Each structure stands twice: as C-alpha cells, then as structure tokens.
Amino acid sequence: MKAPVCNAWRLYDGLPWSIKDKTLPKAKITALGCYTPPRILTNQDLEKLVDTNDEWIVARTGIRERHIADPGMATSDMAIEAAKCALAQRGIEASEVEVIIVCTVTPDMFFPATACLVQHGIGAKGAWGFDMIAACSGFVYGTTTGAHLVAAGTHKKVLVIGSDTMSRIIDYTDRSTCVLFGDGAGAVLIEPTADGEDAGYIDFLGEIDGSGGDALKMPAGGSRMPASHETVEKRMHFVHQEGQQVFKYAVRKMYEVCRDLLERNGLTGADVGVMIPHQANLRIINAAADRLGIPSGKVLINIDRYGNTTAGTIPLATRDAISQGRLKKGDLVLFAAVGAGYTVGASLWRWAY
Ligand code: ACO
User: Fold this and answer.
1) Which residues does residue 29 pair with via DSSP β-bridges, in sequence order?
2) Using CA positions, which residue lies closest to atom 31 of ligand 1?
3) Dihedral (C-alpha) 208, 210, 213, 219: value to the nearest 10 degrees?
4) Cis peptide bond N-terminal to 71, omega within 30
5) Is the same domain home to 159 and 308?
6) Quick check: is 114 in a domain?
C-alpha cells in the first residue's frame, strides 16, 4: 500500500476508523443553502480597471464573471443568508442548531468570530461555534470537523458555512489576482444517519504545508505586521500571490490527495459519481480529473460564473450539481481543495438526499 499522506492515518492499520468501526454513528449532509450577492463583475468590466482582456482570463482561468458584495455587506451577512436557506430547506428552527463552524479568510473582523455573529443573526440560541481559517480548503476541513462531531455521538445538528468576501482583500490594480476572485457563501447541515442508513461521510485525507505560506497571503494586519500608514501605502492588506508556484503545487496536490484517498478506500476515479473540486482555476481542475480518470461529465465546474470564492466554492458547486440533476441520493461524492497555507484536503461522502 502507498505511503499515506496524513500522519493521523499512520496510527490506524488498515481501513480508516470511520468505516472500520461499524458501531460509531455516521454523519450525513441533510440540507444545503447558498447565497451570492446580486452584483456581477464581468471580464469586460475588469478590462476597464486593469490591463487585461476576456480572452486571457477565460483561457488561463476559465472565469467569465464573479459576484461582488455591495459595500454594506460583510461575510457574516452572506453566511446568515446561506444558513437561513439551509435551515428552511430542512424545516428546522435555528434554536435546534448545536454548533456553528464558519470557514473564512475574510471574517467581518478578527474578533468576535464570525460564527458568533451568525449565531446571533439567525437566532441559534444555545449553539457554540468557531471560525476556521483554512482558505480554499476551509469547506472540506469544516465539513470533516462537523462530521466528526456528529460521529462522536456528542452532537446532532452542526451547521458548517463557507463564506468569503474576497473582493474586500483584492487589489483591483493588480491584474494577476483581481481577475480570479469573487464573493459567495454556502451552508450545510450535518446530522446523524438513521440506523442502517448507507449514506454520509466516509473518509478524509488532509495535509498542510507551511513552507508554501509566502506564496499566497495577506501580509499585513496581523500580529506580525500590524496595520500602519506604511502597510496601507504598500498595499499589504491585499492578497499577494506567486501565481505559478501556487498553480504547480495545486495541480500536483489536487491529484495526489484524491488519488490517495480513493486508493485507501479501495476505489478508483471510475467509482466517483461526482467530483466537486474547489474552483480556483479550470486548468487545475481538468488536470486533476484527467489524471484520476474521472470523465468531465462527472466533474462539477461553475468557475465561469463565480470565480474563486475561497471557502464558498464547494457549496456553490454542490448546489449547482443538485439543481442540474448531476448529484442524487446514493452518489459517491469526492470533494477536493488546495489553498493558501498551503492547505490540502479531500473527502468522500455518499450523498444522502
Ligand atoms: N491579464 C493579462 N495578462 C496577465 C494577467 C491578466 N489578468 N495576469 C498576468 N498576466 C500576464 C503576466 O504578467 C505574464 O506576462 P509576462 O509573460 O509578460 O511576464 C503572463 O500573463 C503569464 O503570467 P503567469 O503568472 O505565468 O500566468 P499563469 O498561466 O500562471 O496564470 C494564474 C496565472 C491564473 C494566477 C495561475 O497562476 C493560477 O491560477 N494560480 C493558482 C491560483 C490558485 O489556485 N490559488 C489557490 C487558491 S486561492 C486561496 O487559497 C485563497
């Protein structure tokens, strides 16, 4: 068997514990709500801001337009809309939610946590929660954490939200980054499966690699480099990216993490019902899917309409998969992401509704 990617896996000999120990409860996603702000920024709009053109952006990234939040809207506002939508879909009251995990790199402010603002905004009295900073891998990490809280038998209703207002930390004079990102949010509810139900969370594989931290970051505003006139003048409160370095890492890791996850579950790309990858660049997605042997018809792509919404991409793509009839009850779903940090993660789920 191939050397596993994550250290935790080395503790377990054989199958992952989640499917090895049949006595543990299983976790499933029971509802999904999304929100994107109505304002759209097209490639043609960006041509007026920086030296770029629609042809370059489409050919290099696959993006045609992205949604941008109006000035009054922050990450928690989008998260609240997505959460309300998920709860309405499930037909439950916010007061029934026990945990709120908000995955974001664009919190309303450093503290209080966006999870607290969402808790208050939806009226989830009695819930606890926290923010998770894992950039583009946020939703994969957040849903895995939520699944484990449910699988531990300690929680029955966990709300996981990916929400990012990337437009607030993008430098719209930097053509190499401003064409890539958009704003959006998605929320899922995670609950225990019914007795004997063959659905829900199966397995996760993750890896972080801080040696890549400098390749994609917002340099100032934290304890290393607090806000000052100098940091503002040097535009250090915006996303800085070594595009090619991140691209090469993402192409390699998106494939490797999926390959290893499938392999240790005795699966191949041919078994995957739907691959729902993080939407950073169409070329990264296609390269990974090709090498995994997953045909393009089974790979959800909506980067053309939303760009990279960081923690929002996977729930937005999942919503599209459902609405297009491409994700149905019983399908094997592969979520996968690579992002700033570096953070890498993939998870397997049997879709439950
Ligand atoms: N319009 C026109 N030309 C451009 C633009 C633009 N918007 N941006 C860059 N160029 C130019 C460059 O200046 C360069 O010109 P030169 O050859 O004269 O120097 C040329 O195009 C090629 O630039 P590259 O950076 O080599 O272009 P590349 O093909 O690598 O594409 C891109 C750039 C799209 C940013 C790509 O590198 C990429 O997608 N990187 C990974 C992004 C990613 O996955 N991020 C991780 C997730 S984000 C998160 O975690 C928050």
Assistant:
1) 190
2) 60
3) 110
4) no
5) no
6) yes
Specify the pTM: 0.93
Gap between the Cα atoms of 339 and 146, Å rounded: 20
Selected catalytic residue, list 34, 85, 116, 136: 136
Angle between helices 75-90 and 114-122 (to 10 degrees): 50
Model confidence pLDDT, tens digit, residues 22-62:
556 799 999 999 999 999 999 999 999 999 999 999 999 99
**Do residues 193 and 140 lie in contact, with contact meaning Cβ atoms separated by under 8 Å?**
no
- Nearest protein Cα to ligand 1, atom 29: 60
Q: Whose CA is nearest to atom 11 of ligand 1?
A: 176
Helices vs. strands in the chain: H and E counts, helices first:
13, 13
Q: How far is CA 7 from the centre of its chain?
A: 22
Instruction: Return the ligand 1 atom nearest residue 52 CA.
Output: 1
* Boundary-marking domain end, from 192, 226, 244: 192
Q: What is the pLDDT of residues 151-187, one digit of tens each?
A: 999 999 999 999 999 999 999 999 999 999 999 999 9
Atom of ligand 1 nearest to the CA of 137: 50
Residue 32, phi then psi, degrees to nearest 5:
-145, 125
Residue 281 near ligand 1, beta carbon < 6 Å:
yes
Is 67 marked active-site? no
* Domain CATH number, residue 213: 3.40.47.10
Range(s) of the domain holding residue 149: 27-192
Determine the 3-state secondary structure of 83 from DSSP. Answer: helix
Query: Hey, how many other C-beta atoms are within 10 angstroms of the C-beta on 117?
Result: 22
Closest ligand 1 atom to Cα of 250: 44
Q: What is the rounded radius of gyration, in angstroms, for the C-alpha atoms of the chain?
A: 19
* DSSP labels, 212-251: GGGGEE--SSSSSS---HHHHHTTTTS-EE-HHHHHHHHH
- Count of domains for the chain: 2
Reading the block at residue 83, the tokens are 């959460």
**Cβ(167) – ligand 1 distance below 6 Å:** no
To the query of whether residue 136 is one of the catalytic residues in this protein, the response is yes
Q: Which two tokens stand for residue 296?
A: 């393009």
